[in-house]
Amino acid sequence: MDHDQLIDLTRRALKLARDKTTDLAPRPHTVDASDYTSMQRHLSDRALLLASPQLVGYVSELAAPGAYCTKTVMGRSILLTRTSDEVVRAFDNVCLHRQSPVVTGCGTAKRFSCPYHAWTYDNTGKLVGLPGREGFPDATVKSDSLTELPAAEFAGFLWVALDKDATLDVAAHLGPLADELDSWGIGRWSPLGEKVLDAPINWKLAVDTFAENYHFATVHRDTFATIARSNCAVFDSYGPHHRLIFPLNAILELENVPEEQWDPFHNMVVIYALFPNIVLSVTIANGELFRIYPGDEPGRSITVHQNSTPLDLSEESVAAGAQAVFEYAHATVRDEDYRLVEGLQANLMSGARDHLVFGRNEPGLQHRHITWAEALAASASVG
Ligand code: FES
Ligand SMILES: [Fe+2]
C-alpha cells in the first residue's frame, strides 16, 4: 500500500477514534439461523469454495526450485512444488496405486517415494519408479502422472483451483486489491508454520469473528483490547472482498503530531476478508493467514492458521520470539473467539430463535453475508 493511502486511512481511523464511533452500514441486516445450521446450505457452501480460487499459502513456502509443501483443503490433500523452471505446480497428493498420500509436510525434494509401496514421482508429478512392475502391466512409467491442478503464485500467495478443469484467474478474482496485497510483501516474509483448529462451529461463524471489532472490549478485554480500540473500524469493500482497519489505542497520540511524522503502521491492524473463506491480518511484524473451511457437517469447521514475519529468523532468539507471538495470537483466537462462538453455534442449532442481526456498526459482517448470499443465488440461477 502506498504511503499516501496509508496516511489517508490513518486520518480516517484517527477521526473515528476521536469521535468514538465507527464506519456504519446504512441499516442493520438480518440473516437466518439456518445459514449456520442447515445441511442444504452446508453443501452449497462447500460447492462455493470448490468453485473459487483458493489461497493456500505464502510464496515463501516454495522459496526455491526443488521446494515442496503439502496443504489440506476441505479434506483434499494437495502437493505443491516449485520445479526447476521456477514454476509452481499443484497435484492431488494421491498415489496412483492405492491412494496413499505420496508425501507429507514440506521441504526440498525432487522425487517423492510413496510410503506404502514406493511408487515414485518426480516434482512434475510424473511416475518415475514402480517396484514390482510385472504386477501392473497397465501402468506406464515416465508417462503416468499424479492429477495436476491449476496453480499460480500471485500477489505473494500460492493459489490453486480444486477442479482440475477450471481456469484459475486470480487477477480477475482479486481485482483492484491485487496490487495492494502484493505491496505488503507478507507472502514473501518468512513462514512460521501452520496451526490447525478443528472447531464445533460453522465455518461462517469462524469467519465472522474476524469481521468486526465490536467484541474486543468484552471478549478480548485482557488481550487485544489492551492495545486496540473496540467498536472502531474503517471499512472498505472491493467487490466480494473487504478491508477493515482496526486502530490501536496509540492512534490518539497522533492528534498533536504533524502528518509528515506519522508512522501509520504503528497505529493499526489491517484485516482483509478475501472471498469466500480467507482472512489476512497484517501488522508491522506479522502477516497472519486464516484459511477457513467447512467441515464434514454444518456445525464443524477447520481453520488453518499461518503466520509470516519480516524478521530475520536465523537468530535463535528472534525465531523464538516470533513463534511466541504466533502462539499468543493463536491462543487468543482459540481460547477467546472460537471458544465463545461455540455457544452461538449450539444456540443456533437448538432452533430457539430463527434469526440473528448484524448492526450498522458491523459493516464487515454484513458484507460477508451479503456477498456469500449473492454468490449462492448466482450459482443457483446458473446451475
Ligand atoms: S499406495 Fe502408493 S505405492 Fe502403494
Ligand atoms: Fe476476536
Automatic annotation (TrEMBL):
**What UniProt keywords apply to this chain's record, in alphabetical order?**
2Fe-2S, Iron, Iron-sulfur, Metal-binding, Oxidoreductase
SUPFAM superfamilies documented for this protein: Bet v1-like, ISP domain
Q: Listed GO molecular functions?
A: 2 iron, 2 sulfur cluster binding; iron ion binding; monooxygenase activity; oxidoreductase activity, acting on paired donors, with incorporation or reduction of molecular oxygen
Q: Supply the name of the protein.
A: Rieske domain-containing protein
UniProt cofactor(s): Fe cation
**Could you tell me which Pfam families the record lists for this protein?**
Rieske, Ring_hydroxyl_A
Q: Which residues form the signal peptide?
A: none
Q: Which residue intervals define the domain Rieske in the entry?
A: 55-160
Q: Which InterPro entries match?
A: Rieske_2Fe-2S, Rieske_2Fe-2S_sf, Ring_hydroxy_dOase_asu_C_dom, Rng_hydr_dOase-A
Quick check: keyword Oxidoreductase in the entry?
yes
Keyword hit for Metal-binding: yes
